[in-house]
Amino acid sequence: MKHVVRISLVLSIIVLGYLTVMSILTPIHFEEERMLREKAIISNLIHIRKAQIEFKNQYGHYTASTDTLIDFILNGKMPVVLKEGTLTDEQLLAGLTEKKALQIVKSGNKKEIAANGLENFRRDTSYVSVYESLFVDVLTVDKVKELDIIPFSNGQKFEMETRMHTNANSGIVIPLFEARAPYDAYLSDLDRQELVNLKDQQTKLEKYTGLKVGSVEEPNNNAGNWE
Description:
Elements: H1 2-59, H2 66-75, E1 77-84, H3 89-93, H4 98-107, H5 110-115, E2 122-129, H6 130-135, H7 141-145, E3 159-166, E4 173-182, H8 183-187, H9 192-204, E5 210-214
Antiparallel strand pairs: 1-2, 3-4, 4-5
Helix pairs in contact: 1-2
């Protein structure tokens, strides 16, 4: 009987020790894995933001379609202004502006061009690939094609939303966009209780339960919630 009691006591100690160790290691492992995964997701969100900003520069609004955004990156063109010559202080004081100077040069009137000292002033616009200009050094074409997929999510896509926001004071309409990756999409295969705790903590702080860039609630300069 004594042997049975001793064995039971030893087993209880082992189990208790294991549970104690796991109670310490599980949150640590969860946090380490979360940080690793979020690094990859943040990288994608930054690329999405860059593409959205250029898309808005050209079309005046953002897109809520990840397919449209990827097509824009791979097939779109962006204007690049090649500048030659600058206006001197004397020319600026004389009332010349970039716009006026360009109009004079485009007119082809050699006397007027010479009179204003614009012989070497040029502003030529050319068009280059969006991919070649913004992404070729950081993303392969295959990576661009997968830019809409949340890393570690088993194929789930980033949630994308757009809205035209009207400023209550000025009446100015501002385009907004938001791209999101919820915790459930990329952390669901980790410890369930740790995920529940993380979501509960964020909810109590009235924060989004995941990673996101931009906001459709109010202008935030397209900031990410990790910044």
